[in-house]
């Protein structure tokens, strides 16, 4: 898919000269296969990325500045405190400190985040924003880091940030740091749907009854039938917390999806459709039924179908 088609045609961030897409991350399958002694869960996940997401722009300024706009701007924290703080600002400050330790000067920067993705939604919004910030600022500051150094920064920011940094079809293992590309995974037309109810990932894992589930195993290049044999192990506990996940999955399925599943820890669900046209028609229908919910037709990154 041409990268030029992945950015919005209008909007402040899209008009900037230096900008980065923070695409929605979709876990097409997610198996929980174990737990480390430090409490981190071991996962196997087939991950892909959409052609829509948040957008960040970067511009020279007299002093650091951060502006946020978009449908979900009011959910973005204003500070860089660790934990529940703003991952864009955390990524900026962490990268600046790292470059300063190497004697690399970093000028002030104004960052504009166009927040188009719902938060706490299982589609990597904050992690994708952090990864896009690292990519954008390395270009803005004309700096480079070795890949192991960059991955270490990503993991400090969050387990999903390394895969979001790559932004391609992947098999993710471990806690998200073991990444292998999936060059045969096709580009898929999807409908994303979220009832705009935030889901706590720690709560989901606490409700997980089994943490030694079977691995994904050998894959088949006939991808949609293969994906139907897989699952998201976080979906049952998420459904027990947020009953709307059942509803939104059934609604997407009723529009003709070939497969519906929850992404990540939810509450976003996706449906795979025969074409982007049928996906968009489904979104139009779903928006009429639930105008206050989030629905988006996307095309994922991958080989041409």
TrEMBL record:
Positions bound to ATP: 118-128
Residue ranges occupied by any GHMP kinase N-terminal domain in the UniProt entry: 86-167
Pathway this chain belongs to: Isoprenoid biosynthesis; isopentenyl diphosphate biosynthesis via DXP pathway; isopentenyl diphosphate from 1-deoxy-D-xylulose 5-phosphate: step 3/6
Domain GHMP kinase C-terminal: 222-289
InterPro entries linked: GHMP_kinase_C_dom, GHMP_kinase_C_sf, GHMP_kinase_N_dom, IspE, Ribosomal_Su5_D2-typ_SF, Ribsml_uS5_D2-typ_fold_subgr
Enzyme class: transferase
Gene3D superfamilies documented for this protein: 3.30.230.10, GHMP kinase, C-terminal domain
List of catalytic residues: 25, 160
EC number: 2.7.1.148
A Pfam family of this chain: GHMP_kinases_N
Keywords: ATP-binding, Isoprene biosynthesis, Kinase, Nucleotide-binding, Transferase
GO molecular function, one term: 4-(cytidine 5'-diphospho)-2-C-methyl-D-erythritol kinase activity
Catalytic activity: 4-CDP-2-C-methyl-D-erythritol + ATP = 4-CDP-2-C-methyl-D-erythritol 2-phosphate + ADP + H(+)
Family recorded in the similarity comment: Belongs to the GHMP kinase family. IspE subfamily.
Job of this protein: Catalyzes the phosphorylation of the position 2 hydroxy group of 4-diphosphocytidyl-2C-methyl-D-erythritol.
Protein's UniProt name: 4-diphosphocytidyl-2-C-methyl-D-erythritol kinase
Species this protein is from: Neorhizobium petrolearium
């Amino acid at each position: 898919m041409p990268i030029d088609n992945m950015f919005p045609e209008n909007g402040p961030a899209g008009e900037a000269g230096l900008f980065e897409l923070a695409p929605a991350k979709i876990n097409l399958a997610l198996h929980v296969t174990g737990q480390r002694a430090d409490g981190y869960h071991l996962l196997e996940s087939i991950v892909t990325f959409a052609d829509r997401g948040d957008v960040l722009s970067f511009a020279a300024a007299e002093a650091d500045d951060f502006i946020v706009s978009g449908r979900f701007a009011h959910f973005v924290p204003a500070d860089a405190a660790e934990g529940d703080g703003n991952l864009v600002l955390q990524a900026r400050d962490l990268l600046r400190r790292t470059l300063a330790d190497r004697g690399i000067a970093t000028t002030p920067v104004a960052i504009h985040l166009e927040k188009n993705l719902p938060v706490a939604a299982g589609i990597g919004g904050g992690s994708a924003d952090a990864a896009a910030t690292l990519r954008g600022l390395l270009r803005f500051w004309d700096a480079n880091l070795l890949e192991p150094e960059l991955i270490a920064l990503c993991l400090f920011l969050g387990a999903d940030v390394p895969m979001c940094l790559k932004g391609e079809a992947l098999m993710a293992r471990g806690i998200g740091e073991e990444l292998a590309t999936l060059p045969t995974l096709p580009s898929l037309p999807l409908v994303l749907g979220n009832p705009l109810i935030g889901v706590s990932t720690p709560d989901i894992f606490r409700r997980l009854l089994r943490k030694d589930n079977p691995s994904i195993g050998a894959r088949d290049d006939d991808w949609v039938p293969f994906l139907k044999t897989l699952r998201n192990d976080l979906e049952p506990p998420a459904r027990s917390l947020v009953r709307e996940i059942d509803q939104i999955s059934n609604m997407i399925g009723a529009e003709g999806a070939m497969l519906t599943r929850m992404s990540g820890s939810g509450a976003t669900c996706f449906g795979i459709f025969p074409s982007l046209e049928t996906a968009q028609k489904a979104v139009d229908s779903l928006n009429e039924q639930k105008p206050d919910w989030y629905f988006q037709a996307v095309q994922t990154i991958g080989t041409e179908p």
